[in-house]
Amino acid sequence: MDLMSDDTKLWSAIAATDLCTLATIKRDGRPQLSDVNYTADTPTRVLRISTRETLAKVHNLRRDPRGSIRVIGPGGGGYVAAEVRASFSPPSADEHDATVEELVDIYRSIRGEDHPDWDDYRRAMVADGRIVLTLHVERLYGWVM
User: Fold this and answer.
1) Structural domains in the chain?
2) pLDDT tens digits, one per residue of 47-89
3) Whole-angstrom distance, CA of residue 40 vs CA of residue 77
4) Degrees (nearest 5) of the Cα angle 16, 96, 88?
5) How far apart are CA 61 and CA 87, in angstroms?
6) Are 89 and 98 in contact (CB under 8 A)?
């Protein structure tokens, strides 16, 4: 087991998966944990998450945009943590607005092109009040095997 400080290897572990635990800060200072799927953009080191505006993680990050994510290393060896800063899209308001288009892109990046009914998906994004939560990676640490 080698401790890795090489940012590139740590980022590669984040980019190799689409599931993480997101930690946000509750009003009382304790962490609030959510397992979320995400997309990772390597050139910008930005993660994107589809979520509902009414959820605790969104409320916490609007109050304090600092958070952290944790992913398990490849093959279960080690972990990578990223300190992140959040930003938000506007809530989806129309089936073809920019937010819904980005939510479709996130779905396709995680699940692929196959969806049984894209029109229904778009309607659901608006009905759910979905937003794109963008996490800007500021620091990586951990170790991977």
Assistant:
1) 3-91+130-143 (2.30.110.10)
2) 999 999 999 999 999 999 999 999 999 888 899 999 999 999 9
3) 20
4) 55
5) 8
6) yes
Cβ–Cβ contacts within 10 Å for residue 6, how many? Answer: 11
> CB within 8 A of 114, min separation 6: which ones?
none
- The position carrying tokens 């952290």 is 68
* Mean local confidence (pLDDT), 87-113: 96
- Angle at the Cα of 42 (from 36 to 44), degrees rounded to 5? 95
Q: In Å, how far from its chain's centre is CA 81?
A: 13
Residues 6, 108, 62, 20: what is their CA dihedral angle, to the nearest 10 degrees? -40
Tell me the two tokens of residue 18: 């689409």
pLDDT at 2: 45
Amino acid type, 98:
A
pTM of this prediction?
0.92
What is the residue type of 10?
A: L
Whether the per-residue pLDDT at 37 is higher than 70: the answer is yes
- Please, are residues 46 and 125 in contact by the beta-carbon 8 Å criterion? no
